[in-house]
Write a structure and sequence with these properties.
The chain is an alpha/beta fold. Helix content is 35%, strand content 15%. The chain has ten helices and nine strands. The protein has helices at residues 12-27, 51-62, 73-76, 85-92, 108-115, 131-145, 163-172, 192-200, 245-248, 279-298; strands spanning 40-45, 66-70, 98-103, 120-125, 152-156, 179-183, 204-208, 220-223, 256-258. The strands form two sheets. It has a five-stranded parallel sheet with strand order 7-6-5-8-9, with helices on one face. Strands 2-1-3-4 form a four-stranded parallel sheet. Strand 8, helix 9 (245-248) and strand 9 (256-258) form a beta-alpha-beta unit. The N and C termini lie close together (11 Å). The structure holds aspartic acid (ASP). Aspartic acid (ASP) binds at residues 124, 130, 163-164, 224-225, 260.
């Protein structure tokens, strides 16, 4: 039995296999229509979600499995009555073959995995990790660019509280010849532990404050939303870094613009028409990557 708690749970070979399988599933989904036959998977979400929960649930159903779900466990589950996460997990595992968990605490997925007898899949834990988002982000880069090695990346927006950025940069550090620019307001800079990790792995990381500081030839811009829900009212005083068409015009035709979504105003709507904006394609890839992940998890 394998849990998926962190992006560190995947090595590069496993990612390559997963991405090849994702390609196959996208091409011939019908071949996988009964991969999860007879399985019941629980989605247990203590924080809001559109893409992650619905793409997991669509993935489960497309693989022939069934879903039980609590989409607002923070308010509508027995958490309100004071039930501990460990107890909830022990109960839900009795009804299901795997648990997809999103929680506002950084350590929640680890805590759940410690007590669970069925696989726990981390669907976002506090500001710490969002491993399946990193899988779909990396898959999107691989499918558009044909490689992940040797590229130049800008991660921008909220690098401090953005869990998708944390999972992504941790894994990018395992590819060779990667260069990363971290563009944010000083208050939202990438925490030192990630900067150190990148340094240790020999990745060239530069933090900057403007798109003028990054070369126009960057391969990938990964922009993110200010995670206001993790910083209370203080966050509202931090000016958003906005990407509009004028910013996009600075970059070459091969620069792609990604975003985990949801977006607020940090990417102007006008940019959606730009061929290089791939965030909706990225979110669609989420379902296929999660199908590949679930298929792999239950493969005999
Ligand atoms: N949907 C992503 C997450 O759950 C990104 C975001 O919310 O900004 O972390």
């Amino acid at each position: 039995m394998k849990h998926v708690i962190s992006i560190d749970d995947f090595n590069i070979q496993q990612l390559e296999r997963l991405f090849r399988l994702t390609d196959q599933i996208r091409q011939s989904p019908e071949q996988y229509a009964s991969s999860l036959a007879g399985k019941v998977i629980a989605t247990l979400f203590y924080e809001p979600s559109t893409r992650t929960r619905l793409s997991f649930e669509a993935a489960i159903q497309r693989l022939g499995g069934k879903v039980i779900s609590t989409e607002n466990a923070r308010e509508l589950s027995s958490a309100v009555k004071g039930e501990r996460l460990e107890d909830t997990i022990r109960v839900v595992e009795g009804y299901s073959d795997a648990i997809v968990l999103r929680h506002y605490e950084d350590q929640a997925a680890e805590i759940a995995a410690e007590v669970a007898q069925v696989p726990v899949i981390n669907a976002g834990s506090g500001a710490k990790e969002h491993p399946t988002q990193a899988l779909l982000d990396l898959y999107t880069i691989y499918s558009i660019k044909g490689k992940i090695d040797g590229l130049t990346y800008v991660v921008s927006g909220d690098l401090r509280y953005g869990r998708t950025v944390h999972s992504l940069v941790k894994k990018l550090a395992h590819y060779s010849n990667v260069r990363i620019y971290g563009l944010s307001r000083p208050e939202l800079a990438l925490p030192q532990e990630y900067v150190e990790y990148l340094k240790q792995r020999g990745v060239s990381y530069s933090s900057c404050i403007s798109f003028d500081d990054v070369p126009s030839t960057v391969d990938v811009i990964y922009h993110t939303r200010t995670q206001l829900e993790r910083m209370g009212t203080n966050g509202k005083e931090i000016a958003e870094i906005i990407i509009d068409q004028q910013v996009m015009n600075r970059f070459g035709e091969n620069t792609i613009l990604m975003h985990p979504l949801p977006r607020n105003q940090e990417i102007a709507m006008e940019v959606d028409e730009d061929q290089r904006a791939v965030y909706f394609q990225q979110s669609r890839n989420g379902m296929y990557v999660r199908m590949a992940l679930l298929h792999t998890l239950f493969e005999r």
